[in-house]
Design brief:
CATH superfamily: Winged helix-like DNA-binding domain superfamily/Winged helix DNA-binding domain
Organism: Lactiplantibacillus dongliensis
Structural class: mainly alpha
Keywords: DNA-binding, Transcription, Transcription regulation
CATH architecture: Orthogonal Bundle
Number of helices: 6
CATH class: Mainly Alpha
Pfam families: HTH_27
Shape: globular
Oligomer: single chain
Strand order of the largest sheet: 1-3-2
Protein name: MarR family winged helix-turn-helix transcriptional regulator
């Protein structure tokens, strides 16, 4: 056993409070637009992509199934945030693009989330936020990515 029982108890306590708090503050503005945080991330990824992006590209980058991404994209299509353009060479491949409404929504949500993030930087300091982001990056590459290779 690498960790002490207290370390595990602390992890469980912080997981239940900190991550839920973060999720609530980030998800609240997003839910006003009838989407989940995952759908917002997909919409933002589509909007910031410099090349045509396909559903399978998004599934790969999020380490989830195509059907999971398809469900999120269905919501984005329903509320007219994205549209699809078929590849003339292979009509099964459809690039995803933001509508004008999707672009405006993404811009507004980024502004709303930036305000919350800026408050955290003011309260905790830039260096502590950078340390937290480094930890999240390490966790993603060393734990999550290794699990998806299994």
């Amino acid at each position: 056993m690498n960790g002490s029982p207290k370390m595990l108890d602390d992890f469980l306590k912080y997981y239940a409070t900190v991550l839920r708090y973060m999720d609530d503050f980030i998800s609240e503005p997003i839910s006003r637009y009838h989407m989940t945080f995952d759908a917002f991330l997909i919409m933002h990824e589509i909007g910031t992509s410099t090349k045509p992006i396909l559903l399978m590209d998004i599934a790969d980058s999020h380490h989830v199934s195509r059907s999971a991404i398809s469900r999120q994209i269905s919501t984005l299509l329903k509320y007219d945030y994205v549209y699809q353009v078929a590849n003339p060479a292979d009509r099964r491949q459809k690039s995803l693009l933001l509508t004008e409404k999707g672009q405006a929504t993404d811009k507004q949500l980024i502004q709303d989330i930036q305000l919350v993030f800026d408050q955290w930087i003011d309260q905790l300091g830039r260096d502590r936020i950078k340390t937290m982001l480094t930890f999240f990056d390490d966790f993603t590459h060393q734990v999550i990515a290794s699990k998806s290779k299994d």
